[in-house]
Structure formats: structure tokens, C-alpha cells
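Q&A log
Question type: sequence-to-structure
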Amino acid sequence: MTRFFATPVRDASSALRDYFVPANAPFSCVVKKGESVRIVDLEGQQAVDTLFYKADDFSERYSSQDTLRVQGSAYVSAGTKLISTEGNVMLTVTADTCGRHDTSAGACSCEANTVRFGHQVKYLHACRENFVLEVAKHGMTKRDIVPNINFFMNVPVEPTGELAIVDGISGPGDYVEMRAEMDVLLVVSNCPQINNPCNGFNPTPIKVLVFGAED
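Response status: OK
Response body:
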């Protein structure tokens, strides 16, 4: 497997905090400036929809458009700086064993699923609903949900310019690690999608590890 590292990798046993996120579930935690957060795809081919907010001012949050513009690439990988709506660097991707991550296709919703797959799926759980549930814990609403990163999700750009959602390329234990450049609130929807191959039609659990600041 090709591995993409920007900085030396620490052993998981040195993590300050270790969270298990079940399949389909939302999750959030604060990552302090200088700390690193690692998202681990435990079984492979799991999409992890992710948002970031400045921890002391939620009005400043992750901007997919500015992130793509600044780095000049369609994907997120090692070395990518995740940019906020105010043009500030929120996090830097320091390690990546998958290779690329989508930040264009957005999050699934009940409405989008209905349009794409038919009215029979209208009441299936979706990432947007996960995000609404999780940000509500922090005093936010659905108006605060913005275009997100889909870690491990394989979204190639077709020759026509259209986006395709195809089988994931991540394997069991693959991970992406980011160093926080400011205090951030991490919000995750461990994607419940079963109607397209982003999860191999089988949502699975993930881990979130938080490491202390390096000297």
C-alpha cells in the first residue's frame, strides 16, 4: 500500500484520547491548537463526512471552496491546508495512508437520497441528519452546516467534469491525520449511506484519536 506522510507517525498507544464511533453515528470533540487528530477507517471503504468549526467562534468554519482554491487540487491529502471561511488555516494534513479524500460531493441527505434512489428510501438515515443532531449539541442549527470533507470517499472527476461516487480505495486501518492550527470543533457523520458504493454498501465503525502537541 502506498503511504503518504508529511511528518513522522506516532504510535496509536500515545494518543491522549481514543474514541470509537459506531457505524452510522455522529460524533464531535474539540481539538486544541497544536494537537493532532487521526481518523481511522477500521474496516476499509468507509466514508467519514467531516466538518470543522473554530472552537470559540462557530461562525468561522471549514471552507471547501477556499481549500480547493488555495491548494490548486481537487482532493485533500498529506500536506493539504484546510482553510476557513475567513481565509485562515484551520488544520494541516500531516499523514495519509489512503491517498486522497473528497471535498466536493457534499453530504447525503434524505432529500437527495429520494431524488437519486426513489421515494422508498426517503426515511433512511443520512449524513445531513447526523450533522443536525451533532451541531445542535453545540447550539448550532442546520443553517450552520456547510459543504464538508468526505474522508476516504472515492469521487473521481469524469472527463465530462461530472463527479462519480465509486468503490472506496481505503483498506482496513487506513487513516488520515491532521494538526490543528487553531482550536477547532470536529464534527463527524460516520456515513450511513447504503444506496451507493461510497461505503461498499456496508457502513462500518471508525476510530478518532487525539494526540498531544509535539515538541
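Response note: The first helix runs from residue 64 to 71.
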